[in-house]
Write a structure and sequence with these properties.
Strand content: 25-35%
Order of helices and strands: HEHEHEEEEEHEHEHEEEEEE
CATH architecture: 4-Layer Sandwich
CATH superfamily: Endonuclease/exonuclease/phosphatase
Number of helices: 6
Number of domains: 1
Structural class: alpha+beta
Largest sheet: 7 strands, mixed
Length: about 280
């Protein structure tokens, strides 16, 4: 009788326990494909970049600077993924994308959209003192097995406008609060063109958690993420980030990936990769 009683208690406990589910995320500025980069041009690195993503198999990854033909290439090369994103110049296919790719066998899409980082986020526009139009694309995903919901936001801040970067950070936090379902965890990723000590990064860190600083087990790779294709010197500037929901997400591992081939990187930015538990 005692063993049967213990077995029954264990079954009851297991039935009512909620287990954290593990997911992986990556952010990657892939460098726009029409840049005159010589031996680092897109045609010479696109296959290696796709293979790199295949090797790490992130459940969700966001790209920055991808033009339509680059997004289409990744969509074709990475058949296990679907994506959402639009060109920032016309809200369709023109200009750079901040696209979000997700494993199609793992997630259902509950919502997606794009807003512009400007005073009129619902319109194609350039905000504040920015030099170029900038966007944030988002997806609300639901795990097909356990039902966890994750709101993923992917963006690329302006490289010139100081006010634009400050206001973009504030706008994104506002939009996260408006868009995300109450029961969804949040991941914000992207190339923010800002280093950690700057005001907008500190503001984002007050509302979300910087994955590099909160990683529980492993923080791997250089701190810097921008290389400019310079393979001979370690990157100094950290401008690519993944931020997570402090209440719902536990970051287990964080890495800046330095994979290369023939002493060449696959982009002028290094991808940032995290492994997390969603509580």
């Amino acid at each position: 009788m005692v063993p049967k009683l213990i077995f029954s208690i264990l079954i009851s406990l297991l039935t009512h326990m909620s287990f954290a589910q593990q997911f992986t995320f990556m952010t990657y500025n892939i460098r726009y494909g029409t840049a005159r980069d010589g031996e680092n041009s897109w045609e010479f690195r696109k296959n290696g970049l796709a293979e790199q993503i295949k090797f790490y198999e992130p459940d969700v990854f966001g790209i920055q600077e991808g033009l339509e033909f680059q997004v289409e290439y990744l969509d074709s090369a990475l058949s296990e993924y679907n994506y959402y994103g639009v060109g920032r110049d016309d809200g369709q296919t023109k200009g750079e994308y901040s696209a979000v790719f997700y494993k199609k066998n793992k997630f259902n899409v509950l919502n997606n959209g794009t807003f512009w980082l400007s005073q009129t986020p619902g319109e194609i526009s350039t905000g504040w003192d920015a030099q170029l139009p900038r966007v944030c694309s988002y997806m609300v995903l639901e795990n097909k097995v356990e039902g966890e919901k994750i709101a993923v936001f992917n963006t690329h801040f302006d490289h010139v406008g100081e006010e634009a970067r400050k206001e973009s950070a504030r706008l994104i936090i506002q939009k996260i609060q408006e868009i995300k379902p109450a029961d969804a965890a949040v991941v914000l990723m992207g190339d923010l063109n800002l280093e950690p000590q700057t005001e907008p990064i500190k503001y984002l860190s007050k509302n979300l958690t910087d994955a590099r600083l909160s990683s529980k087990e492993v923080t791997f790779g250089p701190e810097g993420t921008f290389t400019g294709f310079n393979f001979t010197e370690p990157p100094e500037r950290r401008i690519d980030y993944i931020f997570t929901d402090p209440d719902r997400i536990e970051v287990i591992k964080y890495a800046v990936l330095t994979d290369s081939k023939d002493n060449k990187y696959y982009s002028d930015h290094l991808p940032v990769y995290v492994e997390v538990n969603i509580k």
